[in-house]
Q: What sequence folds into this?
């Protein structure tokens, strides 16, 4: 499958979001975003063009008692290729209690080229064409959980967020159930209304920042959140 295209930025861009639990959850999961976030917090997303045709995306999400930090680096050739991911969870005392570093350029796991950490996808799809065509990529959760996802742009609309009222394009992202269970075309069409969907709204005008995100933050069944640009 074709690689995702990088956002066209000449300098670093920082966007701030309100982060809160999704009111109407799609799943009854063990991890409840309302308990993890404890109200409305803040997320900071920094996208930085680097020398040598590289791109870095850094995320920082406030939790009720701590913070999650994630930084991913990409090569920008014919498209985006994931190089490295650093992820850490800090508790309320700023003590790191989860730390992870993944080097996607090493190891022989047979991972696809169009592979992107799932939590990064809402901040990467901004640079793809808003032409209504269905496209695909692979989402990485851990090395033992890689899934094909589809994404497709829809209608334009005005979206009201704390940053104001913005002209946006809606993009849906959803998993391919055939990754887990072989299904016929008819069954797939019947299952469509019940598929877990990630909904994203991007600025209709460049640089197409993410304005709003709603869905599981991670694979289906992950804590469900809402992000809104402030």
A:
């Amino acid at each position: 499958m074709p690689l995702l295209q990088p956002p066209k930025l000449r300098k670093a861009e920082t966007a701030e979001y309100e982060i809160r639990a999704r009111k109407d959850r799609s799943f009854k999961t063990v991890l409840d975003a309302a308990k993890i976030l404890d109200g409305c917090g803040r997320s900071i997303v920094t996208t930085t063009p680097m020398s040598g045709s590289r791109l870095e995306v850094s995320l920082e999400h406030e939790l009720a008692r701590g913070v999650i930090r994630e930084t991913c680096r990409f090569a920008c050739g014919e498209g985006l290729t994931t190089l490295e991911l650093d992820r850490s969870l800090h508790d309320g005392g700023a003590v790191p209690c989860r730390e992870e570093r993944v080097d996607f350029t090493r190891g022989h796991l047979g991972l696809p080229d169009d592979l992107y950490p799932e939590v990064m996808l809402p901040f990467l799809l901004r640079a793809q064409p808003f032409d209504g065509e269905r496209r695909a990529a692979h989402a990485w959760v851990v090395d033992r959980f890689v899934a094909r996802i589809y994404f497709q742009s829809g209608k334009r609309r005005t979206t009201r967020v704390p940053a104001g009222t913005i002209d946006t394009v809606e993009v849906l992202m959803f998993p391919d159930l055939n990754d887990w269970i072989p299904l016929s075309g008819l069954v797939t069409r019947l299952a469509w209304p019940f598929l877990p969907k990630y909904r994203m709204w991007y600025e209709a005008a460049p640089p197409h920042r993410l304005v709003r995100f709603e869905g599981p933050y991670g694979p289906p069944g992950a804590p469900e959140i809402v992000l809104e640009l402030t």
Remarks:
- The mean pLDDT is 90.
- Residues 50 and 56 are 7 Å apart (CA to CA).
- The chain is about 5% helix and 50% strand.
